[in-house]
Amino acid sequence: MTDTTQQHPMPAAEGAAASPGWLARWGVGLGLLVATLVLVVAAFHQTAWSIVAIWERSETYAHGYLIIPISLWLVWEKRAGLRHLAPQPARWPLVLLLPLGFGWLLGRLVDALVVEQFAFVGMLVVAIWSVLGHRVARFLAFPILFLFFGVPVGEGLVYPMMNFTADFTVGMLKLTGIPVYREGTLFTIPSGQWSVVEACSGMRYLIASVTLGVLFAYLTYTSWWKRLLFVLFSILMPIIANGFRAYMIVMIGHLSDMKLAVGVDHLIYGWVFFGVIIMIMFLVGSIWRDPPASLPLPPREAPTPISRRGALRFLMVTAVFSVFWPATAWALSDHGGDVAPVAVLAPRAQGWALAPELDAWDWRPRVVGTDGSLYAFYRPEGGDAGIPVGLYVGVYRTQRQGAELVTSANVMIEQDHPIWSDTLVRPRRVMLDSGELRLTQHLLLSRRGQRLLVWDWYLVGDRHTANPYLAKMLEAKSRLSGRHGEAALIAVAAPYDEQPETAAAALTAFLNAMLPAVDAEIERSLAAAE
């Protein structure tokens, strides 16, 4: 679909004369549109409610409440052109409900909520397109497609943005001449210690800026290259601005001897700064504002009456497409039945001794909904020399709501942990004797000064991966083949003093010896529970 941006008001006399004709053109079509949307929302009501629930609980996505009103307002602004058009239902766009419904099914089976939500909004867009027809949908393309901004998305960018903000802030402090000691996203200056947490990542600013930037570009420009440039500007501007915001807050705290910008005023400064940045962004964008388009109204077309029989057939086809996917998801689900617990035993391997008496640290990953798990300490055989290693294995025999391998609830450290903090999260590749292993690396720091290097990854079927999207795809493959998405989360940890690479060498040696035994134990425990 493409968009026409003309906004041409009608003279009052013409509008009054056209009013009965407008009702004749749109009356049945609007009724069919409302009935179709109600049908789709009812069929996928759980997904629709999940979007609203995220708007409700997350300040990052609270703007979602405004998306539908903004779309309706944009449609109202184009009412003059709509008087010249009429709904002409087109059936072939309904074919797109097949791939969208299949995408929703995959998201449902593997609990990939964002996939479900995008597919659901895509089905709403296709339903609107199909009811209104090609000409009307093309004329209203932007207001319709703007609905996608209601999908809560972007959580995967939090850690990269945290790392960028820490890099930017530390770099600016060094340029200012302030000595800095950094460990991941935690850094210390002479006046105190600071850390970049999720709330400091700038994710809220980025999402709000992009949503407003796209809307501003549509309303302000008529040329596509200007619109594209301003959208790119609205993406880069909040990222850079958030780095300056973090730097300014640290400097305010530093220059005030840690009396300012260390409490609630920290957040106030941030939002005031963001408001100023948005205002500057719009002022700069207005310099190249295009004059209002003076395109002619679309030619008036004679409406083809929509018969009741035709509307009923259309609704029946939509109902079949809509109901088929939730019914299939229900048929492939486990319907909340009891799941047998999984007994996971500590694996053994030559060169490493199980050390049940060892309690080298009190850190444990937070992993929810497992059907069985263990945390065991090991030390190198041949005495007490060497770095101890902790092994965590969490097994999922049947993945279901609240018991999912890949979920934001499963973390190495929760955000507000009273003792431990995650100072750095980055992907890493480790070369083992058996080949390359891709995992996620964490540098943990406790308030007692203890440091841990943690590696974690997923095992789905016989495939090791740290990529959550690949893990979800492998789970979908398992569910579609009639299995239950059997999988496991594996994490290993080792202490270090100054350089984490000393712990990395110990973990590499441990995995070379122990990983085959870990895989075998996971397979054994799952088989024993069947």
The CATH architecture of the largest domain is 3-Layer(aba) Sandwich
- Highest CATH level, the class of the largest domain: Alpha Beta
How do the SSEs run, as a string of H and E? HHHHHHHHHEEEHHHHEEEEEEEHEH
CATH topology of the largest domain: Protein Transport Mog1p, Chain A
Uncertain residue segments: 2-20
Assign a percent range to the helix content: 40-55%
The shape, in one word, is: flat
Instruction: Please identify the structural class as seen in this structure.
Output: alpha+beta
Please specify the SSE layout and strand pairing.
Layout: H1 12-43, H2 45-57, H3 67-77, H4 79-82, H5 97-109, H6 113-132, H7 134-139, H8 141-145, H9 158-176, E1 181-183, E2 186-189, E3 192-195, H10 203-220, H11 224-255, H12 264-287, H13 308-332, E4 352-354, E5 372-380, E6 389-396, E7 420-432, E8 435-446, E9 451-460, E10 463-465, H14 468-480, E11 487-495, H15 500-529
Antiparallel strand pairs: 1-2, 2-3, 4-5, 5-6, 6-11, 7-8, 8-9, 9-10, 9-11
Helix pairs in contact: 1-6, 1-13, 2-6, 5-6, 5-13, 9-11, 10-11, 10-12, 11-12
Defining traits:
disordered N terminus; 50% helix; Protein Transport Mog1p, Chain A; flat; alpha+beta; eight-stranded antiparallel beta sheet; 3 domains; 530 residues
Describe this structure in words.
- The protein contains 15 helices and 11 strands.
- Residues 2-20 have low confidence and may be disordered.
- The two termini are 50 Å apart.
- Strands 4, 5, 6, 7, 8, 9, 10 and 11 form an 8-stranded antiparallel sheet that branches. It has a 3-stranded antiparallel sheet with strand order 1-2-3, with no helix packed on it.
- It folds into 3 domains: 9-153 and 303-333, no CATH class; 154-301, no CATH class; 352-529, 3-Layer(aba) Sandwich (Protein Transport Mog1p, Chain A).
- 50% of the residues lie in helices and 15% in strands.
- Helix 10 runs parallel beside helix 12 (264-287).
- The protein has 530 residues and is an alpha+beta fold.
- It has helices spanning 12-43, 45-57, 67-77, 79-82, 97-109, 113-132, 134-139, 141-145, 158-176, 203-220, 224-255, 264-287, 308-332, 468-480, 500-529, and strands at residues 181-183, 186-189, 192-195, 352-354, 372-380, 389-396, 420-432, 435-446, 451-460, 463-465, 487-495.
